[in-house]
Amino acid sequence: MKNVMKLVLGMAVSLPVALVAANETPTGTGIGPSTGDREFSISGTGSNDASFDEGTFGIVAEHGWYLQPNMLWGVRQSVNYASIEGESLTDDYWNGATSAYLDYQFGAEKVRPFVGGNLGLNYGDSSDDSLFSGLEGGLKFYALPSTFVQTRAEYQWFFNSADDIGSSFSDGSFEYTLGVGFNY
Asked: Where is this region: Disordered (predicted)?
C-alpha cells in the first residue's frame, strides 16, 4: 500500500511540473514565443545621398502567428516615402507593399537568427503595381523574455505573371530594416 501511495503522490507532483514544462520554450529558458503565440513588430528603413538633398524612409509593421516555437508566418505592411530630385522627377513619392511571410528561427536563446521567404504586392506613385517574392534573413535579440530588437535584410524580385518569375530574379532589390517586436 505504501508503494501505491508513493506512486500516486509522485504522479500528482509530476503532472503540474510536466504541464508547466510543456508551455516553455524548447530549452525551458522562458525567452521568446511558444506555439500559438502572436508577434507584432514595427521597423524603420531609410537612405539618403551624401548631401542629404534626396532620401527615402519607410515604416514596416508585421503581425504573425507561431505555428511552432521556431516557425512564424504572418502579414507585413510597409509604407515608404521618397524625395528624389532629377531632370524628369518633380514630385515626392509614396509607395507601399503588402506581403505574407514565413520565417524559421534557429535556437531558443536570446539571440535567434532566422531565414524565410515572402510573397506580396507592391504599389504606389513611383512603381508599377506588381507582385514580388523575396528571400530574407535576420537576427532577433531578446532584451526581455517577450521583447526583442530585430534586424532583417531581404532580396525582392518583381513580376507581373508566373512567366516573369525566373527572368526577373536578377533585377531585384534589397531592403534592410531595424525595429522592435513583442510576443504575446
From this structure: 26-45
Q: What is the CATH number of the domain that holds 61?
A: 2.40.160.20
User: CB burial class (10 A; 0-12, 13-18, 19+) of residue 7?
Assistant: exposed
- CB-hemisphere CA count at 13 Å for 54? 10
Domains identified in the chain, total number: 1
What cell does 182 get?
513583442
Per-residue pLDDT of 58-99, as tens digits, reads 999 999 999 999 999 999 999 999 887 765 656 788 999 999
**Domain span including residue 146:** 31-183
Owner of C-alpha cell 505574407: 100
With 0-12 / 13-18 / 19 or more C-beta atoms within 10 angstroms meaning exposed / middle / buried, residue 80 is buried
Distance CA 101, CA 74 (A): 5
Cell output for 17: 511540473
- Separation of alpha carbons 83 and 93, rounded Å: 7
